[in-house]
Design goal:
The complex is a heterodimer. Chain A has 18 helices and no strands. Chain A is mainly α. The longest helix of chain A has 42 residues, at 276-317. The radius of gyration of chain A is 23 Å and the shape is globular. The relative contact order of chain A is 0.19. Chain B is mainly alpha-helical. Chain B is 59% helix and 0% strand. The radius of gyration of chain B is 22 Å and the shape is rod-shaped. Classes of the chains: A mainly alpha, B mainly alpha. The interface between A and B is medium-sized, with 40 and 28 residues.
């Protein structure tokens, strides 16, 4: 097959490499912190019913679509959403602009995600050194975290520099792997990180399972009752629409769909490489980490040391509270706690790095493919811009910049991107051509009823999520309802930064169009 | 943990464990793995 458009594009070195890279992108902090909280707060075991359905009707089809259109675009020299949508639409002028948020979203998430990743690295070090091992009170541990984050100055930390230093290390690590390229950087990282994460996850699981009932006064606080807290179903919860929405939301975020990362990674496949089985394998790997490992570690451990009431409070306190306040307190109470705490935070760190490199890649791919920059120039420019924006977020964290960016980039844009992606695939490109692409080189025959799901059910579910979140969260966010007056300037600056980055991406698309990158000459099939 | 909890827990474990085993079994036993690493030939003179 003539392949002129992609002569200079890299390819994955092995099939396992791309599967582990997509799995690494999907397995992130949310698997270990968000899923247990969501399940425990939304009907326990009953939560798994909408969760399974969301996996079947939303997660699997969306991943198949993104793998397929990524490979299709890559074969035509386009590995990012603007270029992929352009070729899928038959080179319509408007299509490439639908891909703007699929670049803006992931890079904006990276701006704050790498700072949080730095916390996990620092906490793994602190665990090993026993820096917080004397703390037994949740309020004290909360103060330790706030002091570390630079939100307040206290007896634990008077300056932000330890957090800032850990951010610098993480930032350099991320760009090192991106700078090395797809095969030598991303693939190598994930081939090492995923097996390490699996081993650490299993060690943690065994440690929690063998804790017994540490408190003689409360023999009921044991591993199996902890599992019961998470898994005993409350079927009445299924009558609540918000539980279904929470399951769909969790499924959506956990698989990394709508981030542009899967498309970018799949664009480095060859024409005859399988996407059907590879996509399902990456999804199932993610679910293994989420349901089997995370589902058996975090909540049972909390239950063993804090009991039913305490675990309820912790679940209501949210994911970060669970990960950075409750879990350290749990480790402080168990034998070998310092080392187990180190393993926990190192697991989160590894999960974070494999995800964050995938957040940078769509923008790198865009600059390489559409503006014809080389990888090193792309990485340096993104690194310099990212460094400035992340610094703004670090020093305005207490004023709400991270929350504001997370709403747009981490909540709204992914749903929007997934909706655009599936509409482009099922309605614009067409299911017939779409399935022909999906079947090319496939080691798994995708049942044809998924065509109906892709065309009607998944877009409807995404629209429902978009509308509901738009009303529930979007209106209060837009009207700054929950923002203190003194923080409003920071929130507005954050919005202008997002608008500015979006405008730069649109400018990049216009420049690429003027240079003929969206013309007809790179047609290869 | 009550009976319903055990059913939900074991079902989830069996479904996702089976899926992951099935997928990796298919990956490692595929007769024609499509991806192959490019040859690394050092063409530079010593």
């Amino acid at each position: 097959m003539p392949d002129l458009a992609r002569q200079n594009r890299e390819n994955w070195g092995s099939r396992l490499g791309v599967i582990l890279a997509v799995s690494g992108s999907a397995v992130g902090l949310g698997n270990f912190l968000r899923f247990p909280v969501q399940a425990a707060s939304n009907g326990g075991g009953a939560f798994m019913i909408p969760y399974f359905l969301a996996f079947l009707f939303m997660g699997i089809p969306l991943a198949w679509v993104e793998w397929t259109i990524g490979r299709y675009g890559g074969m035509r020299g386009h590995g990012s959403a603007p270029g992929i949508f352009h070729v899928l639409s038959g080179r319509k002028r408007w299509a490439k602009y639908l891909g703007v948020t699929a670049l803006l979203g992931p890079i904006s998430i990276f701006f704050y995600y790498c700072y949080i990743e730095g916390w996990t690295l620092a906490f793994s070090f602190y665990s090993l050194m026993g820096k917080y091992s004397h703390i037994t009170d949740p309020q004290q541990m909360g103060a330790f975290l706030s002091g570390f984050q630079g939100v307040e100055s206290n007896s634990f930390f008077s300056v932000i520099w330890p957090a800032y230093f850990s951010f610098l290390i993480v930032f350099v690590i991320n760009f090192y792997f991106i700078y090395r390229g797809v095969t030598k950087g991303i693939e190598k990282l994930n081939k090492i990180a995923l097996p390490i994460m699996l081993v650490i996850g299993l060690i943690l699981l065994v440690r929690i399972m063998t804790l017994g009932a540490p408190s003689p006064d409360h023999p009921e606080q044991n591993f199996f009752n902890g599992l019961g807290f998470l898994w005993n179903p409350d079927f009445n919860a299924l009558k609540d629409a918000s539980v279904w929405l929470a399951a769909a939301g969790q499924m959506f975020f956990t698989l990394s769909v709508g981030m542009g990362s899967i498309m970018a990674y799949a664009s480095y496949l060859r024409a005859q490489d399988d996407v059907a089985l590879s996509s399902l394998t990456a999804n199932s790997t993610n679910e293994f980490f989420e349901v089997i490992l995370a589902g058996s570690i975090v909540i049972p451990a909390t239950f063993i040391f804090f009991g039913a009431m305490g675990t309820q409070e912790v679940a209501q306190g949210g994911s970060f509270n669970l990960g950075f306040v409750t879990m350290p307190l749990i480790f402080n109470q168990m034998g070998g706690g310092n080392f187990i705490g180190f393993l926990w935070f190192f697991l989160l760190f590894m999960a974070g790095v494999t995800s964050s490199v995938s957040l940078i890649q769509p923008m790198v791919t865009f600059l390489e493919d559409e503006l014809r920059w080389d990888r090193h120039k792309s990485v340096l420019v993104i690194g310099a811009a990212g460094f400035i924006v992340t610094n703004f977020i670090i020093f305005t964290l207490a004023r709400g910049s991270l929350d504001e960016m997370d709403f747009w980039a981490g909540t709204l844009f992914p749903v929007l991107n997934a909706l655009f992606g599936i509409i482009m695939f099922a309605w614009v490109f067409g299911l017939k051509k779409g399935f022909r692409e999906l079947d090319t080189g496939a080691d798994l025959k995708v049942p044809r009823f998924f065509g109906f799901i892709m065309k009607y059910i998944t877009p409807t579910a995404l629209l429902a999520i978009l509308i509901t979140w738009g009303i529930q969260q979007g209106i209060p966010v837009l009207t700054l309802e929950n923002v203190a007056p003194e923080n409003r300037l920071t929130v507005w600056i954050t919005r202008f930064i997002l608008l500015g980055v979006g405008a730069i991406i649109i400018g990049g698309i216009i420049v690429a169009r003027q240079r003929g990158r969206f013309g007809r000459k790179e047609e290869i099939r | 943990m009550n009976i319903s909890g055990w059913i939900m827990f074991l079902t989830s474990w069996v479904v996702f464990s089976s899926l992951v085993i099935f997928c990796y079994y298919k990956i490692f036993t595929a007769r024609h793995p499509h991806l192959t690493a490019p040859l690394e030939i050092d063409t530079k003179a010593d």
